[in-house]
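FORM 7B: Structural annotation worksheet

SECTION A. Query
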Amino acid sequence: FSSADKEYFSIPSNASLQTGDTDFEVGAWVYLNSLGTIKGIISRVNEYSLYVSNNNYAYFRIKNGASSKIITSNTFGALNASTWYFIRAWRTSSDNRVYLSVNGVTDSDTTNFNPASTSDDLNIGLHKGWDSYFDGRIDSVYFSKRASTNTEVTALYNAGAGRTYSDLTAENGLSIFKSSLTSWWDMNEEE
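SECTION B. Predicted structure
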């Protein structure tokens, strides 16, 4: 993805990608070419956004009308250029919490509302609300209507090597994760 060329991937509005009062998780492997600007990773702009801000921290934002909740990767810290990161964010409706994890280091916070359920397009490599394009590589992007287990997260991280869709097998401890996916996009953005 090149921010200068305004490259991004868009999936037209699809009810299976809506959130509302439900558990959900989004995740991706990202590699930053540059620092200091907002970079959209995956978003439905009026529901949720996973992005890197101009301070180089990962952010997860859920939104419902004028209300929004933002969680920052304060525990992990700032991201660096030229490094792959496994970033995932999720919401659990049972305890009304939002979570953000970078390479397994997690931050969380409570929220007092549900994300909206909109007809927005899903964008990869763009945060449409701020016209902020990703500059770097994005790979193995997914959306699920449940939060992954710790065992699944460890298997997805794969000691920093990541996974492709074809790797989501019982042998790798990921068959239940795979069956619960709403969508997975192998962007083939490897080095």
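SECTION C. Observations
The mean pLDDT is 90. The CA atoms of residues 23 and 92 lie 5 Å apart.

SECTION D. Sign-off
Analyst initials: ____
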